[in-house]
Amino acid sequence: MTLKYINAVISDVSNDNSLPVLDGNLGPSAVDIQTLYSRHSLLAFDPGFRSTASCKSAITFVDGDNGVLLYRGYPIEELADSSNFIEVAYLLMRGELPDAKSLKEFQDLLHQHNLLHEQIMTFYRGFRRDAHPMAIMVGVVGALSAFYHDVMDISDADSRYLAAVRLIGKMPMIAAASYTYSIGRPQRYPNNKLDYASNFLQMMFGSPVMEYTVDPVLARAFDVILILHADHEQNASTSTVRLAASSGANPFACIAAGIASLWGPAHGGANEAVLKMLNDIGTVENIPKAVTRAKDKNDSFRLMGFGHRIYKNFDPRSRVIQEQAKKVLAHLGKDDPMLEIAIRLEEIAIKDEYFIERKLYPNVDFYSGIMLRAMGFPVNMFTAVFALARTAGWVSHWLELQEESHGIDRPRQLYVGKPLRHYPAKK
Ligand code: SDX
Fold this sequence. Notes:
The structure is a single chain. This protein is mainly alpha-helical. Helices cover 52% and strands 3% of the residues. The protein has 19 helices and five strands. The protein has a three-stranded antiparallel sheet. α15 (316-332) runs parallel beside α18. The two termini are 40 Å apart. S-citryldethia Coenzyme A is lined by residues 232, 235-236, 266-268, 270, 294, 302-310, 358, 360, 363-365.
């Protein structure tokens, strides 16, 4: 197959080889190839979507070369420093920071919708006690579509907003229950006197038979983790939600699809994989061997928590999380050898030609597990926490997609299978 350039190929088949170029407000422009097939019977080939803008979006902007992450134009560092998760969720969904009245109304609405229907709690009983929390969350969130399917009118903006609020409101109890079920502890209910992060921590770690006092330092650190994981433009799980939503599917089912995609170790499942990797490395002395393995093409071992499809510089979130991890460990008076191994591993890797050449840096998952483990989260709950936070981004993209109408997403393919052939005649 000879390499041809678009204008050369197009001029072969038509005298108009122009393709419009669309400019965004930030970031790269995009060649609009929507008519490439209809006008020129040509497809664009881009497996993995490395050069493909799947949609227009105004929610989040990532500049991977410069390590920039903006939620509705606000830098992630400023939001992590000065905002809180509920305000960020409102910002992502509505496009502007709320005033005090709007924020209170939003918080009250979430409080009205943070309880799970008692029948939903029976779904948990269908899982083995050792079921992975992400398996439970996929199932339970998908099951919510059976509870709200008939009362939801996707064509109505208020009904769509209520569905989004229900998902953000109920996710803390769904996530906490996927853990308490596994240890056989009855699930505590939300306490509407608490903020979102504190409420989740009391449902996660509190016993139903005694008072639970949330540590404000840990609640704030957890709120920052939620802010940092809330959205990240068209990542794999968000694109999964958008693709499912494009068929008009029930939003609870769409978010369940996003949870399934996030679970993968190349995506949100990496935070769990990082802890397992650091555990396997075990000591600072073993780091060089791990780095050698990560560079070996014949070894499937990779440095989990390193590298990113978009960031070819530091992931701005990993810096903030490293600081939060240090604060939490100091506050708890804990000394986690994993943190020392992680910091040392980063120091060694980012000076290594292999990682420099490939622009591999620590990503959001590299330090988050260390902090969550120090707070008492079991390793298999790390990605469930990621899903809890990312629900804000997923529902924001779901809402945004409903406003545009490019119809169902239906990628094409480059067919490399057998040409037409016929079934052998019966002998
Ligand atoms: C998240 O998309 C998002 O925005 C995701 C996310 C979000 O907020 O939603 O940011 C969250 O998913 C973060 C990423 C978490 N995943 C991991 O930490 C898993 C480890 N990382 C790799 O699997 C990998 O870096 C990816 C999947 C994250 C990105 O892979 P790419 O962009 O497809 O890079 P690639 O596979 O094409 O690799 C390029 C080169 C290859 O070497 P060569 O073939 O060129 O010789 O870099 C190497 C890879 O082998 N490489 C690594 C590596 N990651 C890439 N080598 C060792 N260790 C690694 N971690």
